[in-house]
Amino acid sequence: AAGVIQSPRHLIKEKRETATLKCYPIPRHDTVYWYQQGPGQDPQFLISFYEKMQSDKGSIPDRFSAQQFSDYHSELNMSSLELGDSALYFCASSLASNQPQHFGDGTRLSIL
Amino acid sequence: GENVEQHPSTLSVQEGDSAVIKCTYSDSASNYFPWYKQELGKGPQLIIDIRSNVGEKKDQRIAVTLNKTAKHFSLHITETQPEDSAVYFCAASRITGGGNKLTFGTGTQLKVEL
After folding, report:
1. Which residues on chain B are in Cβ contact (under 8 Å) with A41?
2. CA triplet B31, B94, B96: central angle to 5 degrees?
3. What is the Cα–Cα distance from A3 to A102, expressed in whole angstroms?
């Protein structure tokens, strides 16, 4: 079965640079969620989209923004990167906003 | 906001034994409780979930129980196998028309020994 696709899988950036993470949800899934997972920690909710509109917002820094496009894929844009932004970033998708979330394998972002 | 506590943080069992992981949540409005298994280098994989109108759910060797009054829920794995070794996360959310953001517990590292 098709899963959530995230790209790139690994990304290395320097401080103050920008990064764009992409997420392709499972076909027919209209809801996308972004989570950040630090080393040895649990995933923390960042932001979600339902039918291309932002549906909820968590602990996402103002330096980050995200959107969902007409084909339902989503991008997380990160600017003025800081060392503390080094983490795994997961995207999850669901068939509808009240359905189970299925996660991709994440993007590992390293800030040097 | 919601706060989820998870215990134990590490659990070691012998192959064939049962494993139990417990979570408590703080928001009485939470109505959806999934469990995820995360292997090294992979994303969390949904293994079972339960909604607040159900007290127990079972899927082969895995079962989840929910006590709404006490605000706690548990994962039970029977006849454990080495491939069950992973980090397990519980989560809670309040499903609304707009979304379903998950608040995770801190995870349990399960090791199944031969």
Report:
1. 106
2. 115
3. 8
Amino acid found at B57 = K
A108: three-class secondary structure by DSSP: strand
Asked if the Cβ–Cβ distance from A48 to B101 is below 8 Å, we say yes
**CA triplet A72, A69, A82: central angle to 5 degrees?**
105
Best mutation target, B102, B103, B108, B109, to test chain A (most A CBs within 10 A): B102
Return the closest-CA partner of residue B22 out of B69, B77, B81: B77
Looking at residue B51, its pLDDT comes to 93
Query: Smallest Cα–Cα separation from A63: which of A75, A79, A85?
Result: A79
Q: What does the mean pLDDT of chain A come to?
A: 96
Chain B residue with minimum CA distance to A33: B101
Q: How many CB pairs under 8 A join A and B?
A: 65
B99 vs A35, A41, A56: nearest CB: A56
Residue range A18-71, pLDDT digits in tens: 999 999 999 999 999 999 999 999 999 999 999 899 999 998 999 999 999 999
